[in-house]
Amino acid sequence: MKFLNYGSINIDLIFSVDHVVKPGETLSSTNLVKSAGGKGANQSAALAKAGAQVFHGGKVGSDGQFLVELLKSYGVDTSFVRHYEGSTGQALIQLDKNRQNAIVLFGGGNHAIEQKEIDETLTHFEAGDCLVLQNEIVHTSYLIEKAKQRGMTICLNTAPFDEKIAQLPLQLVDILVLNEIEGASLAGLEIDVPYVQTLEILVRKFPKAEIVLTAGKAGAYYGFKDIRLHAPIYDQPVVDTTGAGDTFIGYFLAARSKGYGTEKALNFSCKASGLAVSKSGAMASIPFASEVFC
User: Fold this and answer.
1) Sign of the torsion angle spanned by Cα atoms 119, 128, 201, 273
2) CA 152, CA 149: separation in Å to the nearest integer?
3) Which positions in this protein are listed as binding K(+) (predicted)?
4) Which of the following is catalytic: 63, 77, 235, 246?
5) Residues making up the binding site for ATP
6) Is 246 assigned a catalytic role?
7) pTM of whole model > 0.85?
8) What pairs with residue 29 in β-bridges?
9) Model confidence over 20-51: pLDDT tens digits?
10) Cα 125 from Cα 121, distance rounded (Å)
11) CATH topology of domain 2-10+36-88+108-292
12) Which residues are documented as binding site?
């Protein structure tokens, strides 16, 4: 199985501050870190580190070439990353002393993707291959519809969750991955309801999709038809939660493609996420297959 992850590629600018800046306030930062980001890029890195064959589709400006090289270094095929005369996607992140953040996003190349580029990329994939998507680029509905016509399996991560999710052809999605807040929103529930209740409503609402619900310290839940599974977290000291969900998705899909059953894949994914949060950074913290599949 080949994976095509058509997703975001961002430059993250992380400012360490005492507190998130208030309106009209000027605040000095104690540190500035420039790093690779974007949920799409993180998930491609996770898939590659887990040993899957993954191709990344997307768009960057000249300022994003270092991101392309980084993905390549992890084993991601970047043949379908286009370049254009504009800016790569940007995330300006304020990180306060309590590790809480505030983020301003600029779409850049993620919003400059064209349908003709999607059409050309999809000609290289066929039935049995998997398309991986998030909610950070344009033309997601088009991607879902065109990939389904080719017989591809479609995995959608609903992050970041907003009103656009409800407008997507979710009935065509094969694997729907959500966190507990996104799951409750899509199910029309309050965020403090039991996770199993959220799972049951989503299974009934999307009967053709496998539902994967990540729930932080409560682990992960899975529902499809009459199957219900739960995997606990892999308990590690938490240093940085950035990219934990992306790590989970990459390892879940990779484990399944390697022939592991769903329950085993859930446990491997929780282990990979636990290892990831015990280190700083996003892509850099994602463990390699030898650390997880053992």
Assistant:
1) negative
2) 8
3) 240, 242, 276, 279, 281, 285
4) 246
5) 179, 214-219, 245-246
6) yes
7) yes
8) none
9) 999 999 999 999 988 899 999 999 999 999 99
10) 8
11) UDP-N-acetylmuramoyl-L-alanine:D-glutamate ligase (3.40.1190)
12) 10-12, 38-42, 136, 179, 214-219, 240, 242, 245-246, 276, 279, 281, 285
